[in-house]
Amino acid sequence: MREKxxxxxxxxxxxxxxxxxxxxxxxxxxxxxxSEAFGKNHMKGAKNFPFEFFDEWKNEIPQNVxxxxxxxxxxxxxxxxxxxxxxxxxxxxxxxxYNGNESQ
Length: 104
Known about the structure:
Layout: E1 3-5, E2 10-13, H1 18-24, E3 27-31, H2 35-40, E4 47-48, H3 54-57, E5 66-70, H4 75-83, E6 91-94, H5 97-100
C-alpha cells in the first residue's frame, strides 16, 4: 500500500510498486548512494546522484518527470524528497531503500 505524505509532498512506495509507476508515468530512478555502492549493484535504469553532492546536481534533474528516489536504507531519499518538494513532477521514495529491495 502506498503512503502519500501530504505534509512533505512525496509518496512512500515499496519496490514492488516501481514497475506500475514506470508503466504509467514518465519517471527517472535516482540512486542516492555513493558511486562505489552504485557500481556494485543498483536498480535497473537508475541514475547515480549521490546525496552528499545534492546541491551540485539538484538543478540537473528535469522538472517534467516523476522521480523515484532510493538510498541505502530510506533516510537520505526522504531528506532529498523533502528538499525537492517544490518541483513540478511527482516524487516517490522507496521505503527501506535499496536494502528494502530484498524483502519485497
